[in-house]
Amino acid sequence: MLTFNFYRPTNLLFGEGKIEELPSLVQKSERILMLYGGGSIKKNGIYDRTKKALAGYHLVEFAGIEPNPHYETCMKAVEVVQAEKISLILAVGGGSVMDAAKFIGLAAKLPSGSDAWQDAVLHSHRRQDAVPVAVIPTLAATGSEMNAGFVISNVGLTEKRAGGNPLVIPQFAIMEPSATASCDLRQTSNGIADAYVHVLEQYLTTDKGETLQSYWAEGVLKTILQVAPKLMANLADLEARAIFMHAATMALNGMISMGVTSDWATHMIGHELTILYGTDHGRTLTIVMPNLWRVRREIKMGRLAQYGRNVLDLTGSDSEVADAAIIETEKFFVSINMPIKLSQADIPADAVEAVSAKVAKRGDRFGEDGQVDSTMIHAILTLAK
Ligand code: NZQ
Ligand code: ZN
């Protein structure tokens, strides 16, 4: 029987020229931390527009959030939030900056002497207080603009782990597709792959049959398949940027997973590849997912066949369609310049042992049924060499 809680209070402002509406969203009394990364926002004009819109506000900047945000850097921002009594963290950037803001929002409210890695990442769901977050996304991929999740890399521990808490769901998200137009081919491809895999992590499970959620998921997948070639042909195609940005948000704002099981094993394995080898998040996913499907083909047969028929227009028996769906998905990843083998992403073959051993040490089991253990991961990555 369908049952779920769905809470997404994010005020979405989508379209061009929305940054100038900031004063209508932010009380004059707010003490704002403007958080950003390595400076791409200074090259594409978003920095200047944001600063101009917030002229007259108490605003402190914190730059330098890395891709795959580092715990160590975020903790420096926590000190600034506490010292400056910040009341709103405004993340201006991609998923890494948005995720950092969420973690910082939780960590800044921890009692002094806490272990922020334990309390605001690994057990983040227990937090009862946070500095509110708002975002201006500049890279369409993660859906972080409208969800409670974040992923932080502890460089000292060589761990990249996910956290989440409804308190840090962005209060508002100002989504201007043109802000993403300065993303290069690599980042654009990474984003397309990430959003496409997000949908599949929630749809291609051991569930069977049509539901509202499965039709929604198939619609997002078809939209991404339709718009991806347009972006590959012309990164400046603003119409395509808008369609994809919308799809990426809907891919991971919780709508398509209402009341259904989700997999996420591909992501869990991907995070280990990123923290060990520095591989872009999206590039880990296109290597892992098709090989995970090959290893889990029998148990996922129903949804692989449904995905093949309803999204990829494949015909034949369930078994034929399932196998063709895996191949066609790899062809799509290759068409957006993504790797489908470890070697194509400069990941050494010994990653198979390294990742399996890391997961075995933690005793983790992933997947919609908790069956993806270190032995199965070893098999998946062996196929991906
Ligand atoms: O350093 P900056 O200036 O921000 O440059 C970034 C960075 O170098 C650049 N970039 C961003 N917007 C740009 C731009 N360059 C030119 N023009 C623009 N408009 O792109 C590089 C990558 O940015 P990043 O934020 O790291 O990329 P993405 O948005 O793909 O985020 C990846 C992070 O999100 C996490 C991943 O694990 C990874 O850490 N994820 C977050 C999720 C969530 N919160 O729900 C789910 C995802 O599965 C994912 O795990
Ligand atoms: Zn992802």
From TrEMBL:
Domain (Alcohol dehydrogenase iron-type/glycerol dehydrogenase GldA): residue spans on this chain: 9-177
Recorded GO CC terms: cytosol
Keyword Oxidoreductase (UniProt): yes
Key words, A-Z: Oxidoreductase
InterPro entries xref list: ADH_Fe/GldA, ADH_Fe_C, BDH-like
Pfam families: ADH_Fe_C (PF25137), Fe-ADH (PF00465)
GO molecular function terms attached to this record: alcohol dehydrogenase (NADP+) activity; butanol dehydrogenase (NAD+) activity; metal ion binding; methylglyoxal reductase (NADPH) (acetol producing) activity
The organism's place on the tree of life at top rank: Bacteria
Residue intervals of the Fe-containing alcohol dehydrogenase-like C-terminal domain: 193-380
Oxidoreductase is among the record's keywords: yes
PANTHER family given in the database record: ALCOHOL DEHYDROGENASE YQHD
Similarity remark: Belongs to the iron-containing alcohol dehydrogenase family.
Protein name: Iron-containing alcohol dehydrogenase
Organism: Entomospira culicis
